[in-house]
Amino acid sequence: MLDVRRMQVLRAVVTSGSVTAAAAHLGYTPSAVSQQVAALEKEAGVALLERVGRGVQPTAAGRLLTRHAAVISQHVAEAETALADLRMGRTGRLRIGYFASIGPNLLAPAVARLRREHPGVLIDPKLTDPDDPLSELEQGSTDLAIVVGRPGDESHQGNRLRLVHLLGDPYQAVLPTGHPLAAREVIDLADLAGEPWVGSEPPGPCLEPIIDACAAAGFSPNVVAKSEDYATAQAFVAAGLGVGLIPRLGLGTHHPGVAIRQVRRPEPIRTIYAAVRETVLSQPAPRALIDALIDAARE
Question: In terms of CB atoms within 10 Å, which end of the chain has fewer, N or C?
Fold first, then answer.
């Protein structure tokens, strides 16, 4: 196998015209240069230089290896430039996992800011499995995921993942506009105990705060209709099928037939995090996205 470094020494000799000149350019001794060329000739199994007067010139094999050494040098320079661009956040690809309700108010402004700050980075957002987004992150399917926290998530942290708190997203009561409780500004959760309910969350981390809060208020919700689409869930409520709880970030579009009221005693809240692999967090673009998500969450 040919040694790439020795090929570059040969190239220096050929382009400078002598071993002595090449040694001066490379910062080597002439003896060291000669030894490198001799070792390369042994690897190639053929003479690479021939003496002409006080200098040397390449043989056909020497010219061939010199041309390839130039190509290798160019490729190495291109690789170094590409690596520097990636390291500085000028290029690359960032795969973002997210769930639907945070898209408009949290993800969209953060991605827009990232695009301005790192225009050369390809941003690839995709909806992820809400039940197990951290596994996709650990397996490398995504680089950064926006997730709803649940007990046990801290066990993923350590050498693999970092969880960054973004915000608490409170659930709010959604009532038909003519409902007696719609006259109140704030509703005690226990006041909804005897109502038929419209479910808006699948089993998982978004449903758990509702179930836990209802249990703390002394009841289990009587779900008579379900829709995992918040807009349809609001339409079900407006049609008089029941009442429901929907997180604030899921209420970007307000159905005219419902009233939205704050809930207390207790107030169900889902906690939203940005989760990222530690190796990804060292790169500028993911760090910039997390900063943008934090700022969007504050707004």
Answer: N
Tokens matching residue 104: 């408009």
Please tell me the pTM assigned to this model: 0.71
Torsion sign across C-alpha atoms 122, 128, 130, 134:
negative
Residue 140 is classified by DSSP as T
pLDDT band at residue 83 using 50, 70 and 90 as cut-offs: low
Among the candidates 43, 58, 87, a domain finishes at 87
Q: Is 195 inside any structural domain?
A: yes
> Is position 147 within any domain?
no
Determine contact, residues 23/35, Cβ cutoff 8 Å.
Answer: no
Please report whether residue 79 resides in a domain.
Answer: yes
CATH number of the domain that residue 198 is part of: 3.40.190.10
**Pairing label, strands 55-58, 222-226:** unpaired
Chain segment 127-151, per-residue pLDDT in tens = 887 667 787 888 878 889 999 987 5
Q: How many domains does the chain have?
A: 2
242 burial (CB, 10 Å; 0-12 / 13-18 / 19+) is: buried
Whole-number Å distance between alpha carbons of 95 and 90 = 16
Pairing status of strand 244-247 against strand 258-264: unpaired
146, 96 Cβ separation under 8 angstroms: yes
> How many Cα atoms are found within 13 Å in the side-chain-facing hemisphere of 72?
16
User: What is the domain extent for residue 10?
Assistant: 4-87
DSSP-derived 3-state class of residue 61: helix
Q: What is the CATH number of the domain that holds 67?
A: 1.10.10.10
Tokens 């409170």 found at:
170
Which 8-state DSSP code applies to residue 198?
E
Length of the chain, in residues? 299
